[in-house]
Amino acid sequence: MALSKHDEIFFGVMKEKGHIVPFLDAVFGFLYRCTDFYCIQDDTSDKVGFPPGIAENCVLKVMRKWEKQARQDDDYYYKKRNNKLNNIPAAIEEVEVVSDDTDSKVSVENKTDDKSSDEISKKAEHTENHNPTPADSYNGAVLDNYRWSQTIKEIDIQVPVPSHITKARDVKVNVTATSISVSVKDGRAGEWNVLMEGDLSWKNNKQESLWNLEPGKHVQVYLEKVKEQWWDSLLVSEPKIDLSKIDASRPMEDLAQDEQMKIQELMWNQERKSQGLPTSDQLITEKILKEAWNKEGSPFLGTEYDPSLINFGNNCVDITETSVNPS
Fold first, then answer.
1. Residue 142 sits in a domain of what CATH number?
2. 3, 175, 190, 310: which has the highest count of C-beta atoms within 10 A?
């Protein structure tokens, strides 16, 4: 599949976010902050925004376009895989061997060890499905049968499944506030095989948990942390990661609204300073001085406001000495 020219940018965002839900939140947050995507047109002649319901339909249309492409890719993958399987010799094959002496035909059974065949198949599936990317274990870890990543608020888990697991009905995910288990149905025996289970290191909001199946690849489970903190392990039983080595930075949108506003103000002030312009505090001070310029008791009473007489350097206000005629 050819890469889009934007994939590198999107991968950077995905790496920062760690998983799909925050990534989508960042995309729609961008549309909210920087476009008219959420503006509702009051009149069809308006050039800004969309008529009611159109923006949502646009999202669904684009999603279904790529969903169709994904299904086509799946069909191609399974056809290709089935063709390979059809070209594999039978496990028990009759081979005719002609004797030079008697010209008689001897029937020989060529038997393949079923156990060895199963082991090879399982190894092939393991190799096929266990190709984690850095984003899959961002601030987390890669274990033998699963991998996990995290942000300060969320956990994302990927559990590889056998290639024949393509339907959600063949998957069972059980999440409680303190534990998790993921099982798949054995295609031949119809029994449930546990792929991962254990007690979580910390509590999650069970009602906010989500999971989905990437057919033939993995089960993805999303957990929301009860408390905003970094986990040093997903399960109590697994080795702990070194929290001093993780990326503990937080996206601005994860901060409280007042914290975001404060950071934006600091960034704006820094930009103003670099341009030699007054900061927000200096503008407020200047407004107060301007209002008081001609008030009773002001040394500038009766004169026009002159900002050149005011120096805002180093966040201090200095008034240049000048001869002012007393009233």
1. 2.60.40.790
2. 175
DSSP E strands in the chain: the ranges are 92-98, 105-111, 141-142, 147-150, 154-160, 171-175, 179-185, 192-199, 210-214, 218-224, 310-311, 318-319
Q: Does 238 reside within a domain?
A: yes
The residue range of the domain holding 303 is 257-319
Residue 250 shares a structural domain with residue 271: no
Are 279 and 174 part of one and the same domain?
no
204: in domain: yes
pLDDT tens sequence across 46-72: 777 777 777 887 888 788 778 777 777
Closest CA to 155 of 235, 86, 253, 71: 235
- First-to-last alpha carbon distance for the chain, in angstroms, is 82
Instruction: Give CA–CA dist 226/215, Å, rounded.
Output: 30
C-alpha–C-alpha distance, residues 96 and 182, integer Å = 49
- Backbone torsions φ then ψ of 291, nearest 5 degrees: -70, -30
Q: How many domains does the chain have?
A: 2
Both 248 and 262 in a single domain? no
Q: pLDDT digits over 165-193, tens only? A: 999 899 999 999 999 999 999 877 778 99
Say what the alpha-carbon torsion angle 149, 150, 156, 158 is, to the nearest 10 degrees: 10
- 148: which residues sit within 8 A by CB, 6+ positions away? 137, 140, 141, 155, 156, 157, 158, 234
- pTM of the predicted structure, to 2 decimals: 0.46
